[in-house]
Amino acid sequence: MAITKSAKKAARQSKKRNVQNVAYKDAIKKLVKEARALVLAKKIAEAKKLLPEIYKAFDKAAKIGVIKKNNASRHKSRLTKLIDKKI
Fold it and tell me: Which of 42, 45, 50, 71 would staple 67 via disulfide (CB 3.0–4.6 Å)?
């Protein structure tokens, strides 16, 4: 339990940031899951239309520090490769 004033504030900030970070990660997971489902269903055109949204979500998360830049880049690359391979 936080005792000092600064520790209490840090705990509040941590809680607030955690909620935001989880929201960004959930958005990414939802979009990637949707894209993978479209690929499995052989709806490649729809999956390609979803790519800009996925890129935006990954870039935003990397920009604010939820995930690392190379992590975002790797995931975007692998997803794009998956979609292009299924053509």
Answer: 71
- What Å distances lie between residue 47 and 35, 57, 64, CA to CA? 5, 15, 26
> What confidence tens digit (pLDDT) does each residue in 5-36 have?
999 999 999 999 999 999 999 999 999 999 99
Please tell me the pTM assigned to this model.
Answer: 0.87
CATH of 11-85, picked from 3.40.50.720, 3.20.20.60, 1.10.10.350, 1.20.58.110, is: 1.20.58.110
Distance between CA 81 and CA 22 in Å, rounded?
26
pLDDT at 5: 96
Length, in residues, of the chain: 87
